[in-house]
Specification:
108 residues; mainly alpha
Length: 108
């Protein structure tokens, strides 16, 4: 009996962000420099877990979607959400929040 294919965490995260933006697979593919004729199929394969994007391609996808690369590989949903939230802050605010959080961890 054929084994059911499961979506990779990278594919899951790409699809979630893409849909959140309301973008097509083709748009993401074209935005990262893929040929228009194959962009939808390539992004679909990544989302379905048929293929894993090479790290440079994953970085381009993350950037296009406004996320850090680490978000795409994070297996824990709450940690992924935290990474995305921190990434969306301006650098000074991000650094301040990270320092606050680390300070809290060190005193706990």
């Amino acid at each position: 009996m054929p084994r059911a294919r499961s979506t990779s965490i990278v594919g899951k995260r790409i699809k979630e962000l893409r849909e959140l933006h309301g973008w097509s697979q083709e748009k993401i593919g074209v935005d990262i420099g893929l040929d228009e004729s194959s962009s939808r199929a390539r992004i679909s394969r990544y989302e379905l877990g048929v293929h894993e994007p090479p790290v440079p391609t994953a970085r381009l996808i993350a950037t296009a979607l406004g996320a850090p690369l680490t978000y795409l590989y994070c297996e824990d949903d709450k940690m992924a959400s935290l990474l995305l939230s921190l990434h969306r802050l301006k650098p000074a605010a991000r650094n301040r929040k990270v320092e606050e959080f680390l300070g809290q961890l060190n005193t706990a």
